[in-house]
TrEMBL record:
The keyword Kinase does not apply. Gene3D superfamilies: Glutaredoxin. It comes from Salinicoccus roseus. GO terms for molecular function: antioxidant activity; oxidoreductase activity. This is Thioredoxin domain-containing protein. InterPro entries: AhpC/TSA, Thioredoxin-like_sf, Thioredoxin_CS, Thioredoxin_domain, Thioredoxin_ResA/DsbE_sf. Residues 40-167 form the Thioredoxin domain. CDD domains: TlpA_like_family. It comes from the Bacteria. Keywords: Disulfide bond.
Length: 178
């Protein structure tokens, strides 16, 4: 029994080390460096990006024009699976005044089909762009998922949450935005 526990701990350490090494190697876009006002701290201008959705539409953060929940997720992530129904229900009632952009970390998916199946199974009703090479994930320094940034209509970061959120916590985060 002790050997099993030691093996599990060792595999966990190796897995975490590999994840950290790979995620640190992701290139960061110039958006963080080109504007001294841009950053990831609360009150900083959110790094801008443009990504494509499954439907082929382009989403540019700076063009949304209303408060945004910027969520990073993957289809294999159990906490992401737990969070999605809350996001769907929240968005159903508040899509007129807020936006949810659920960035799929495609570079960590086993296939596009897995992401599409997840999208259909959970009936996602908000934009789901995919980050094919991890550039946007790197810009936002996402180390664990789900991670959500709340950005006001002017493009400034209001809050950051790591872990799954409920309808109530999503609503509360948006309510705190001016």
């Amino acid at each position: 029994m002790r050997h099993v526990i030691l093996i599990i701990i060792l595999l966990g350490v190796i897995g975490f080390t590999l994840y950290e090494a790979l995620s640190d190697s992701i290139g960061v876009s110039g958006n963080l460096e080109s504007d001294p006002e841009t950053g990831l701290e609360i009150g900083a201008k959110a790094p801008d990006f443009t990504l494509e959705t499954l439907e082929g539409e382009e989403i540019t953060l700076s063009e949304v024009g209303k408060p945004v929940m910027l969520n990073f997720w993957a289809s294999w992530c159990p906490p992401c699976k737990a969070e999605m129904p809350h996001m769907v229900n929240f968005y159903e009632s508040r899509s007129d005044d807020v936006e949810i952009i659920a960035v799929n970390m495609m570079h960590q998916e086993s296939s596009v089909e897995d992401m599409k199946a997840f999208h259909d199974d959970y009936q996602l009703n908000f934009p789901v762009p995919f980050d094919e090479d991890g550039t946007v994930t790197g810009m936002y320094q996402v180390k664990s998922i789900p991670t959500s940034y709340f950005v006001n209509a002017e493009g400034y970061i209001e809050s950051k949450y790591i872990g799954p959120m409920t309808e109530r916590s999503i609503s509360s985060a948006f309510d705190k935005i001016n």
